[in-house]
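To: structure desk
From: M.T.
Subject: fold request, one chain
Message: Could you run this one when you get a chance? Sequence is below, nothing fancy, just the single chain.
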Amino acid sequence: MDKIQIAFFFISGFLVSRILIKAKVPQLIVTQLIDKKHVPLSRLIFYLVFLAAILSFFIPNAITVLTLLPVLEIIRKTYQETTGVEKGLPTILALSVIYGANIGGMGSVTATPANGILITFIEANDITSSNFISFAQWLLWGIPLVIIFSAGASLLLNFFFKSWKYKSIAANISTHISFEKDKHLKHALFLTALYFISSFVISILSLMYEDLVYQLLGTSIFITIFIFVYSFLITFNFGGSKEKLLNISDLYTDLPVKGFLFLFAAIIIGGVLYFLDVQQFLNEWMSTFVSIQYHPFLFFLMIALIASFSTEILSNTVVQLSIFVILESYSLSNAIPLIETLLIATLSSTCAFMSPIATGVNGLAFGGVKGVSFKKMLGVGFAMNLFGAVLISFWVKYVVSLLI
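Reply: Done. Structure tokens follow.
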């Protein structure tokens, strides 16, 4: 049932993202960030990582990428026109959004399907000491984790790409936008607010009141239908001319076809590996590791590394559930807290930064930005996986454990 609800969240988010793009909100964002200002590349990386993280806190991270792709294209063109240099920039821009979008989902219990799987597993197996799963408690440690992780990602990108060697952008964006000038903007902001607030509230209520599952699903469907009708069927008067917010062509215009190809490739590869029962090999391999006694922090780090690097080639859902099953049996004969290891596996399974097929976010951004270096993505992503595993292990061991 939750997967059906997520599907309607995704449809609503996709429609809203297309309206935002048609209303030229990406241009407005660029205008506010860099117009007529000398912006160092290091600060631009910081802006993009945190912007993607913040958006992914509220909407599906794949929708975040689709919304920000026009922003990246504007910045690329502006930087090239201003400095005459473009080498390496597409990779920097794409990775900034990939890192931010993947990281943002860790900030809230409702932000990613992986978090929902964790909750379902805990409830189904009646695991105790799970008070941190409450919405407020997760925010208490989740938001600081996203901030620290995003800052670390920005620093790593600046270090690997030597951003201090690039010239500052001194841009004069000609596409100025205002509430009065753009005819779609107020409608885009209304639907965006409706989507953010409704999905946020429905997600919270789904966690608090399991007996309302059908009513909440019906509400999600109703909101999706409302956004569709508002966008495609209602005619608005724009300066004397009557128009609809969206046309059918707006659903596919300027979409990253190459990005969707990578996304479909990831799904197909994941399906083939699942058919070949690769997850069974993962289970056996992990069982060998967990049979050895480790210091608690080293054990946490090992789980984090296995989860993040396995997700580079396998579905994060497959990786997450496989690790869950092994950890549940392992905890019966060891002093390692089960709830903490489950959380580490969940957070780490969303932190795959190396390959275009690891997550939908990676594929969309890699294919949607022309000129991204696979070699650079692989190298910097490897460092990000290591950094993420250490940070998540430390955070759960020494911060989250205080709340459990």
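Reply (cont.): The two ends are 29 Å apart (CA to CA). Let me know if you need anything else for the meeting.
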